[in-house]
């Protein structure tokens, strides 16, 4: 497997965010390893496989927040790790697959993602919402 640079890995993360905002969710599956694992507080068993991240974003952003967009505030990298600090804003129009009912309100929250690369492929990803209360308010859960 080829070795990628930190800058290459950061570019892949920027590409993933941009493709999500363009509603082209499956454009980046080739950048995920076959045994990709995504860790998310909404999904106790995690995401598994190179299309699982695309499937997740399609269900959550493409369907539940069809007008949603991200802003990348910071993008850091060291070794095989990339950290991204971003915010999301979108209208919650369709129930989330996790059973959270839509409320028609605009939701805005900021969060962090830590990514581990294996060669040229995204191998593992962790979501860390650091303003969970703002997110829960927007979803109508608090």
UniProtKB/TrEMBL annotation:
Residues making up the signal peptide according to the UniProt record: none
Example GO BP: polyketide metabolic process
Origin: domain of life: Bacteria
Protein's name according to its UniProt entry: SnoaL-like domain-containing protein
Organism listed in the record: Dyadobacter helix
């Amino acid at each position: 497997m080829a070795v990628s640079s930190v800058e290459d890995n950061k570019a892949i993360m920027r590409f993933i965010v941009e493709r999500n905002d363009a509603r082209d969710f499956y454009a980046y599956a080739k950048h995920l390893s076959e045994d990709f694992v995504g860790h998310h507080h909404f999904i106790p068993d995690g995401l598994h496989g190179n299309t699982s991240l695309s499937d997740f974003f399609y269900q959550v952003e493409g369907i539940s927040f069809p007008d949603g967009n991200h802003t990348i505030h910071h993008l850091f990298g060291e070794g095989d790790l990339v950290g991204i600090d971003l915010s999301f804003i979108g209208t919650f129009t369709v129930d989330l697959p996790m059973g959270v009912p839509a409320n028609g309100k605009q939701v805005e929250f900021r969060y962090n993602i830590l990514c581990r690369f294996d060669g040229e492929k995204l191998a593992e990803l962790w979501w860390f919402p650091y303003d969970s209360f703002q997110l829960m308010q927007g979803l109508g859960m608090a």
